[in-house]
């Protein structure tokens, strides 16, 4: 017998090209506005994923640049399916499934 924990990791800073347009260049007002729009869009996507996961009973913690959604009742495949059904790409999050052996059970 085993127990498991499913963890979905949401990266708050995964904004790719928008950030690199500001680094190493002389920033222009339109660059900063674009950066702001990308951040806003990313935050909206993360909030949407959190709503889907919360409806399935996931709990949330935040550490530095990541939000962790954990469940001991929903398996990784089911979590991925729920997010995909709501239009979220698997590139927007990471899923880990950790199994733990129950000691004393034969």
Task: Explain what the structure shows.
Helices cover 39% and strands 27% of the residues. The protein has 106 residues and is α+β, with helices and mostly antiparallel strands. It has one domain (2-101): Alpha-Beta Plaits. A 4-stranded antiparallel β-sheet has the order 2-3-1-4, covered by helices on one side. A hairpin with a 2-residue loop joins strand 2 (59-63) and strand 3 (66-71).
Q: How much of the sequence is in beta strands?
A: 25-35%
| Tally of strands | 4
Mean pLDDT: 87
Which class of secondary structure composition applies to the elements? Answer: alpha+beta
CATH architecture, by name, is 2-Layer Sandwich
> Unreliable runs, pLDDT <50, ≥5 residues?
none
The H-and-E topology, N to C, reads as EHHEEHE
The residue fraction in helices comes out at: 25-40%
The side-by-side strand order for the widest beta sheet comes to 2-3-1-4
The biggest sheet amounts to: 4 strands, antiparallel
Report the C-alpha radius of gyration, rounded: 17 Å
Shape: elongated
CATH class: Alpha Beta
Total number of distinct structural domains: 1
The CATH topology label is Alpha-Beta Plaits
- Counted by DSSP, the helix tally is 3
List keywords for this structure.
106 residues, Alpha-Beta Plaits, 4 strands, 39% helix
List the helices and strands and how they pair.
Blueprint: E1 2-11, H1 17-20, H2 29-55, E2 59-63, E3 66-71, H3 76-85, E4 94-101
Antiparallel strand pairs: 1-3, 1-4, 2-3
């Amino acid at each position: 017998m085993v127990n498991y924990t499913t963890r979905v990791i949401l990266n708050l800073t995964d904004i790719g090209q928008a950030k690199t347009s500001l680094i190493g260049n002389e920033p222009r007002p339109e660059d900063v506005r674009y950066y702001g729009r990308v951040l806003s869009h990313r935050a909206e996507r993360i909030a949407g994923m959190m709503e889907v996961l919360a409806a399935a009973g996931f709990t949330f913690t935040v550490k530095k640049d990541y939000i962790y959604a954990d469940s001991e009742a929903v398996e990784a495949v089911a979590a991925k399916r729920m997010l995909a059904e709501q239009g979220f790409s698997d590139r927007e999050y990471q899923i880990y499934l950790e199994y733990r052996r129950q000691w004393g059970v034969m």
